[in-house]
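Re: that chain you flagged

S.,

Sorry for the slow reply, it's been a week of failed gels. I finally had a moment to sit down with the sequence you sent. For the record, here it is as I used it:
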Amino acid sequence: MTTETARGTDLDTLAVDTVRTLAMDAIQKAGDGHPGTAMALGPAAYVLWTRFLTFDPTQPDWFDRDRFVLSNGHASVLQYIALHLTGYGLGIDDLKQQRQWGSITPGHPEHFLTPGSRSPPGRSARGSATRSGSPSPSGSWPTATAPRWSTTGPGRSARTGT
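Prediction finished late last night. Pasting the structure tokens below so you have them in one place:
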């Protein structure tokens, strides 16, 4: 039995290139941060947000939405770009204000500040801990009605509370 990987379309390529370009531009404009992780995760984020996640940008606090927790806080621009491109009310000007004081796109996503953001990644490994240990949308333990998706890096797994 062989597995064949589906070929992307020209639109898929354009979408991923757009994510990567927005990451470069936002970090350059901020004058702080590094776009490498956001650019590398661009294809994965595109596939996840367009083919797997269940969400409604008109209801960012929808009870049964899927959760995306970005453990890699330095790549928060990727989450902002995904929220922008999927209609969560983050405009291009919000992306330009990423990592700036008073913006709704701070250096690390904040649940009550950025529409569609579930939780801040916080210190090393917090995002992974949040994803795996968070209660269900109803606040009860231990089952969830909606999937949780997250990214993490090797540094997140190696650090314990630093």
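What I noticed first: DSSP finds seven helices and two strands in the chain.

Talk soon,
D.
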